[in-house]
Amino acid sequence: EDQVTQSPEALRLQEGESSSLNCSYTVSGLRGLFWYRQDPGKGPEFLFTLYSAGEEKEKERLKATLTKKESFLHITAPKPEDSATYLCAVQGYNNNDMRFGAGTRLTVKP
Amino acid sequence: GAVVSQHPSWVICKSGTSVKIECRSLDFQATTMFWYRQFPKQSLMLMATSNEGSKATYEQGVEKDKFLINHASLTLSTLTVTSAHPEDSSFYICSAARADGNTIYFGEGSWLTVV
Q1: d(Cα A45, Cα A39) in Å, to the nearest integer?
Q2: Which residues of B lie inside 8 Å of A (Cβ-Cβ)?
Q3: Could you read off the pLDDT of B62-99 as tens digits, one per residue?
């Protein structure tokens, strides 16, 4: 069964303090690994899709990387507006749906 | 702008009544849509996969007679919570996959409160 584990559960950073979020996964044939941002009371907002080990994608202060076992979401010089829950999900070739991790709640203090 | 729209954003209904939530893909055709439920401070739990023109596939533990899903067109899926009870109060979110299946967008979610 596909599994996704995110760590840490919660992360508090000072503005400008770079860090990384982890997403460990097991899946029978990775079709895609997805990162989403979710603000309280709203649906997830798409950030990245990664398809193969070694792939990297960047968007503003965010950079996502992928290995065969895990993905990292690196946040460089975060700002308070980056505060949100970051969700990781995997999609396997055997399924059309996604399995989500529990998320990492990021708080960036000014 | 949003590519997947959910309606209503929030709804309050009386116990025993039914409520329908709509999920629309705005600028693409979605052969597959997904319905999730999310409890406070928890991640998304997949309820069912909705395929256009066929019956939905429900996850284990989800009552198909209680959560009716209809995917009548390539841009619309509906979730009807029948005979709602207070324990059905939750945040319901839909997502839609583009034809290539590589990009999946989420709606804004619908808050359901059953009183």
Answers
A1: 8
A2: 4, 6, 32, 34, 41-44, 46, 49, 91, 93, 95, 97, 101-109, 111
A3: 999 999 999 888 899 999 999 999 999 999 999 998 77
